[in-house]
């Protein structure tokens, strides 16, 4: 399977200028190709192929208007055309219903929060013995290596985020040799806002609420930004402070998701989660808290880590009545207001915690071996009793034998 490894880059002044030039050239090539296809569509002409776009790119380098495209690596320009093809392919697949609905490709702006260029293996980039990353027509950049790469990477993407930080993202191929040893526990997870996650064994994990905790600092930085004149240098500095404050929140949330997902994957053989309608919940009055929780990112981490380490992840339907069914007797007691956190089943009299009951029902809906108290209920394999072993004759055959009649 393919994995991405990201590391922080620390380019110097000339290297930052070279990266800015590369970002700009890749953006111009993308916009030029998109404009060619949009003009062809408006004129009723056939779809312009990738080969034709590549020929036009090569020809444009020889013109005075686009001669500066030759100052950067040609590989990142060709990759920009491939990115446009991917955007069109995703758009067409969404029209056919093969993927979620998305819009057509849009023109890129130099003011976008994220800029990126990608180098493939034939670009001539390499990792130097001293640990620096050598990129063509950019130079040797210092990298903060937080871990070793499991194999030789095939591509590297250089990214500049809204906070002005640079990152190198490597794509590597990993073998299925990282499968963890099998363990016994299986767990269902109920995601929420009061508690970030409640497990079917009764464990409750508090929600860190990183955005809520940083709201005062963010409000102060945003207020300072609004007072600066548009287009001024001070406004650019204030915008950078806001971006860095948001980046700190996002990094803390991502670290929390990674630590929790890794812990759950290592301790459980099978995990069940609910397929939540995050887009719908993000349009309610709880939108800020829903975005602050980051459920989609967390479940995505669980999914790829389960595939990598040989675990099983099951998603149950979002319309399963996990909060309405008693996990002890299975009787559906109907919907309950959100302020009711503990309720008593009218059929069996069991006193149930709303979140733990939902987590147990999530596990049961996925077929995991858990009971209402989180204990395993699926017995291990037992030898068949002597009286039940062997093949039993059918009733008609037994009656025929007793009558002494040979059945053909």
Instruction: State the shape.
Output: elongated
Distance between the first and last residues' Cα: 57 Å
Overall mean pLDDT: 87
The SS-based structural class is: alpha+beta
Main sheet: strands, sense, barrel: 7 strands, antiparallel
Please give the structural blueprint.
Elements: E1 2-10, H1 13-42, H2 50-60, H3 74-95, E2 115-119, E3 126-127, E4 133-135, E5 139-144, E6 155-160, E7 166-173, E8 186-191, E9 195-199, E10 204-206, H4 210-213, H5 215-226, H6 233-267, E11 270-274, H7 278-281, H8 287-293, H9 295-309, E12 312-316, E13 342-344, E14 351-353, H10 354-365, H11 395-402
Parallel strand pairs: 8-11, 11-12
Antiparallel strand pairs: 1-5, 1-7, 2-6, 3-4, 4-5, 6-7, 8-9, 9-10, 13-14
A few lines on this structure:
It contains 11 helices and 14 strands.
Overview of the structural elements:
The structure is a single chain. The chain has helices at residues 13-42, 50-60, 74-95, 210-213, 215-226, 233-267, 278-281, 287-293, 295-309, 354-365, 395-402, and strands at residues 2-10, 115-119, 126-127, 133-135, 139-144, 155-160, 166-173, 186-191, 195-199, 204-206, 270-274, 312-316, 342-344, 351-353. The chain has 408 residues and is an alpha+beta fold. The strands form three sheets. A seven-stranded antiparallel beta sheet has the order 2-6-7-1-5-4-3. A five-stranded mixed beta sheet has the order 10-9-8-11-12, sandwiched between helices. β6 and β7 (166-173) form a beta hairpin. α1 crosses α3 and α2 (50-60) runs antiparallel to α3. The longest helix has 35 residues, at 233-267. The two termini are 57 Å apart.
